[in-house]
Design a protein that fits this description.
mainly alpha, globular
Length: about 425
């Protein structure tokens, strides 16, 4: 079968990819951004959409065209490809993203119903054990994810989000507060950087494996048709993400001035749900978080296990699923706050390099020189950001890098990356004139 996916089958595949992207972070960041940005909510959301929707869609397209993340990163160097790919899989896998799904869903589905005297740590341990057992069993069949995620859980999640959105429309209008300090100037830039926290751009570099597997299971055997179907699925998921983010932003706006004092998006959603629906709102919110976190957990377990199964074939796919589920369960019990604190420097180090690779893939004639110089210079700045995020500041290095445009905003890597790509292109031209490589 050489035809690409169309109509209902394409929509189901897009829903599957959407459900893999849409986890706890995707639920909590838009309403929190809206509450903090106040009157600047929509400009901030515009920046958020660029990094939280535009970049993940481009990532899916880039990887599908390149033939995989290893092939894309391999244009820099095989050793870099191996190191960077493993780092990405560990970040979106058992070290950060997978444990975060259990920690967040526990705090939103179980913790609100516990009494003050209840041993929360033991409840969290029991919850994480059941959560990862269910996720592992579902991930045992990666070629059937469209049946579970795309046809059942994702529509249920969208329905619950619609209920919350509809309730916000019906609620009394609230005056938007003035933007908080972080959003007072250049709100779109702050929104763009907040999009990093969804981790969807680096996840997009890996989800292509699972989506391609499901597309082939649907009968698309031709490679070109499979790539085109993957791209269309990415665009479908991107449109759904944008619509849901806008709906959640509206929910955050309707929360009113009181919500600006809350310290995270989960509390903003809890405040809105309680004010609109009362106790029933807590149940709706809990279901939303459980489904979103479960979907993402299954997708991440699948793609990480597929990768490491190819890397170390002597350990079977299901054994990798069990191993990652067990490690993630242990990490998740450290607590959501500690996981989020650790994730900031890691994402600051990985994200700029991932973005550079994505845009280099669209240059068409990108050579090793372009890739190596662009990634090298981007990587130097991103490592500095990672160290600073971890509380390690090398004064002399920071003073030099602070001269870069946008450095204080977190965008200091853009000019070095662009300069590296242009320098690589110039060296290619020189080598071509001399008849070199």
């Amino acid at each position: 079968m050489n035809e690409t996916l169309k109509g209902r089958r394409l929509m189901i595949m897009g829903l599957t990819l959407f459900s893999m992207f849409f986890g706890a972070g995707n639920l909590i960041f838009p309403p929190f951004l809206a509450a903090q940005a106040g009157t600047a909510a929509w400009p901030a959301m515009a920046g958020f959409l660029l990094s939280a929707v535009g970049l993940p869609v481009l990532g899916v397209v880039a990887v599908s065209r390149a033939g995989g993340l290893d092939c894309l990163a391999g244009k820099v160097h095989p050793a870099f490809s191996m190191l960077f790919t493993i780092l990405i899989y560990l970040s979106i896998g058992p070290c950060l993203a997978i444990p975060r799904t259990a920690s967040t869903s526990f705090e939103m589905t179980v913790l609100p119903f516990l009494e003050n005297g209840d041993p929360a740590a033991w409840w969290q341990l029991a919850y994480s054990a059941v959560f990862f057992l269910l996720a592992a069993v579902t991930a045992f069949h990666p070629d059937r994810l469209t049946q579970c995620l795309g046809k059942i859980l994702c529509p249920a999640l969208l329905g619950l989000i619609f209920i919350m959105f509809a309730g916000s429309i019906a609620a009394e209008p609230q005056a938007s507060p003035m933007p908080a300090d972080a959003y007072r100037n250049l709100a779109p830039v702050k929104g763009f950087l907040e999009g990093y926290q969804t981790m969807d751009t680096i996840a997009a570099l890996n989800f292509g494996i699972i989506i391609a597997l499901n597309i082939r299971a649907a009968g698309v055997k031709d490679e070109a048709a499979a790539v085109k179907s993957t791209v269309r699925s990415g665009l479908t998921a991107g449109v759904l993400l944008a619509l849901v983010y806008c709906a959640l932003t509206y929910v955050g706006i309707k929360a009113g001035p009181e919500a600006q004092a809350l310290d995270n998006g989960a509390r903003v959603l809890t405040f809105v749900a309680d004010s609109i629906f009362g106790t029933a709102g807590t149940v709706v919110l809990g279901l939303m978080f459980f489904i979103a976190c479960f979907n993402t957990c299954v997708g991440l377990l699948s793609c990480c296990s597929e990768f490491f199964c190819q890397l170390i074939p002597c350990v079977g796919y299901r054994k990798w699923v069990i191993l990652f589920a067990a490690v993630s369960m242990a990490v998740s019990n450290v607590g959501l706050t500690k996981i989020l604190v650790f994730s900031v420097p890691v994402l600051n180090g990985i994200y700029p390099v991932a973005i550079a690779l994505i845009f280099l893939s669209f240059t068409g004639t990108g050579s090793r020189r372009m890739y190596r110089l662009a990634v090298l210079l981007t990587g130097i700045v991103s490592i500095a950001y990672a160290l600073e995020g971890a509380g390690i500041r090398i004064q002399s290095v920071s003073q030099i890098l602070s001269l870069l445009p946008g450095y204080e905003l977190g965008l200091g890597w853009i000019l070095p990356g662009l300069a590296g790509a242009l320098a690589g292109k110039w060296l290619d031209t020189v080598a071509g004139l001399r008849g070199g490589d």
